[in-house]
Fold:
Amino acid sequence: MVLEHDGQCERILEAGDVPALLDALSSSPDLVLLEWGLPGMRPELLANRLCAARPSLVVVALSEHLTERPAALAAGAACFIHTAEPPPHFLDLLHGLCPGVVEQLPVRSPAALL
Structure:
């Protein structure tokens, strides 16, 4: 996975379904990369619930279907990332959402991530 080799993502939690994701929120993440269609709840409801429970939480919707972008943004996602995005662009989008973290860590060349 691209994030595991990023060097700027110190802790990565993975959830295979909605209950696991909600349980992982107890660790107070700054950002959730939400697979649009994660089993266990309609994605619009899940994004709304995440945003309501933790207003400071950045929710990023991730999907292979570009047609899901409007629904994801309307549900409160800060941005939508298509799964076909090249790794450097994907990381730039995520880093742009959490600039405080990026400023504290050394910047790596995107070429090193390929």
